[in-house]
């Protein structure tokens, strides 16, 4: 049996394959080795019945996750997985690698993540090459849910939103300056708080103000991240993530304007990952 996981900091998507069949699909809490100690990660994995009941039958584990891009995070995750699956072959890579395999399979391409955060890489069919992106929601994350949420919330607090949108937003979220400051500066996971406004933003995408905001965020991401890879001129550019899924029409339109070939756009990398491993 083959166990595949695509994990972010908040949730992890899993699929268990038995030969050429999907045995089960499920979710757990996120498993980021930068934020969680090994014993907590182990508890989360072991508590999942789909895993504990079949751990001895699992031959291969492919883990793709945020926080597993550096040597320390990768080693910590490998140690946890080896204890749970002592007889299995373990592979641990970061979420960008997972996005690359999910969209490209074994073919080369530029791969972008647009979710709560944003990032980009070039995949040569075997491994990824990254640049100086992924700076987080304070310094970077252009085109992400956190970026859009931050800029929209700031406009709301400054009174710069169109009157109609301002009123609807205030009615739905019942926020003000004090509540926003508390959520952003004093509570954890400010990036998740900011990105939580993304569904509201896209719901009003036909409003000129919101349309302009979406264009600015995506243009910044294209100009900052994608344009840094010359390969984007000759290879498809794929996207994964919740924001990419919400903004598929805008992404494809902008791609045409910039003479880029937009490839797959997946909301969940796990969907592409299971197809890849089922086809092997």
How would you describe the overall organization of this protein?
- It contains 14 helices and ten strands.
- It is of the alpha/beta class.
- Strand 6 and strand 7 form a beta hairpin.
- Helix 1 crosses helix 3 and helix 4 (95-104) packs across helix 14.
- The longest helix is centred in the last third of the chain and has 17 residues, at 208-224.
Count of helical stretches: 14
Number of strands: 10
- Which CATH-level-2 architecture of the domain at 2-101 and 270-279? 2-Layer Sandwich
**Fraction in beta strands:** 15-25%
Average residue-wise pLDDT: 90
**Roughly what percent helix?**
40-55%
Shape: globular
CATH superfamily of the domain at 2-101 and 270-279: ATPase, nucleotide binding domain
Return the CATH topology of the domain at 2-101 and 270-279. Nucleotidyltransferase, domain 5
CATH class of the domain at 2-101 and 270-279: Alpha Beta
Terminal residue distance: 13 Å
Given helix and strand content, the structural type is alpha/beta
Could you name the ranges where pLDDT drops below 50 across 5 or more consecutive residues? none
Element pattern in H and E: EEEHHEHEHEEEHHHHHHHEHHEH
**Largest sheet report:** 5 strands, mixed
């Amino acid at each position: 049996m083959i166990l595949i996981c695509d994990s972010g900091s908040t949730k992890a998507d899993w699929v268990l394959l038995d030969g050429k069949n999907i045995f089960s699909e499920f979710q757990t809490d996120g498993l980021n080795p930068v934020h969680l100690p090994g014993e907590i990660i182990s508890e989360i994995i072991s508590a999942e019945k789909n895993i504990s009941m079949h751990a001895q039958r699992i031959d291969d584990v492919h883990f793709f996750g945020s926080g597993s891009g550096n040597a320390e995070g990768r080693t910590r995750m490998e140690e946890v997985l080896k204890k749970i699956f002592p007889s299995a072959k373990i592979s641990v890579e970061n979420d960008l690698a997972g996005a690359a395999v999910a969209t490209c399979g074994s073919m080369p391409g530029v791969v972008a993540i647009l979710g709560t955060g944003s990032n980009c890489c070039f995949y040569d069919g075997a491994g990824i090459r990254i640049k100086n992106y992924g700076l987080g929601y304070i310094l970077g994350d252009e085109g992400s849910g956190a970026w859009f949420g931050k800029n929209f919330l700031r406009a709301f607090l400054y009174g710069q939103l169109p009157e109609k949108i301002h009123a609807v937003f205030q009615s739905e979220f019942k926020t003000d300056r004090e509540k926003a400051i508390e959520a952003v500066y004093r509570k954890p996971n400010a990036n998740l708080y900011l990105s939580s406004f993304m569904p509201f933003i896209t719901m009003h995408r036909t409003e000129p103000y919101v349309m302009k905001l979406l264009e600015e965020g995506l243009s910044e991401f294209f100009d900052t991240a994608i344009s840094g890879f010359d390969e984007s001129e000759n290879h498809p550019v794929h996207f994964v993530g919740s924001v990419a899924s919400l903004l598929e029409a805008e992404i494809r339109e902008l791609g045409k304007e910039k003479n880029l070939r937009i490839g797959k756009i997946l909301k969940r990398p796990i969907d592409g990952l299971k197809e890849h491993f089922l086809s092997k």
